[in-house]
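does this look right to u?? coenzyme A version
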Amino acid sequence: MFLDFSQLDGDLLNQYRYVFNHAFPEVIFQSEVVGSCWTKVEQYFPDFQRILIGSAGQLIGFINTLPLKLDVELGNLPAEGWDWLMQKGISDFEDGSDPNCLGGLQVVVAKEHQGKGFSKTLIVEGQRIQRQLQFRNFIIPIRPTLKHKHPKVSMLNYLKKQENDKIYDPWIRTHVKTGAKIIGVCSKSMHIQAKLSYWEKLLDQRITETGDYQIPGALNLVRIDIETGHGEYLEENIWINHPLD
Ligand SMILES: CC(C)(COP(=O)(O)OP(=O)(O)OC[C@H]1O[C@@H](n2cnc3c(N)ncnc32)[C@H](O)[C@@H]1OP(=O)(O)O)[C@@H](O)C(=O)NCCC(=O)NCCS
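got this back:
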């Protein structure tokens, strides 16, 4: 059964927050866009946050989406992928613009329920919202799940990677199998900046040289500049679209 965000009681809300906070590497939570926008997503669009509950009442996973007014061609979706999508949906709502498109922010399955095919159920639930609203497009800047093992490979080359004649990455594969069309790489999908001390703590080492560093769970390398005392992480994602069938 699916519930929306406003239907979560205290216990389920705690489970939701716990699973949410453990789904992504620490660096993602350093995003200013996540920090400034996420509560608005839940406040403005509670029925676009769909939570899958098992027969024993436990939280299995969820899909977070938001409506937006898409006013560019699919081929011209911004390089700022996820950051743009989040801010566009919120500003459209605040401006009172009529939405014409569904945007996917994330799909999460609780660790103990992963590997059982629930991600497809969650994508199909997003498609159900899209169909109900008759939106022609359901766009998502996806974060491929095995890319963190290849942080030095560009996303463009990673996208071409195959294994046994299949798309290598299981998350890209799952979307394609459920009807998505791949649009292309969004090269600045998440922009995260932090002081040197943050990166030193994350890596548990002193950083004395400017350069590119590998961070746990990050899809790309982080550029750390000793002169400015800052590090910058630009995460590449992949724009995909589920066209209305
Ligand atoms: C991404 C996520 C939602 C996928 O859900 P899941 O329960 O792990 O995956 P499913 O059981 O539904 O399987 C989906 C595909 O991934 C494959 N897969 C699942 N676990 C895998 C693993 N550990 N290694 C490789 N492939 C795996 C499955 O075989 C399947 O591919 P196939 O149908 O071609 O065989 C889940 O791993 C998750 O919540 N991850 C953390 C959050 C995240 O990264 N979300 C995606 C970005 S928004």
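The mean pLDDT is 97. idk if thats expected tbh
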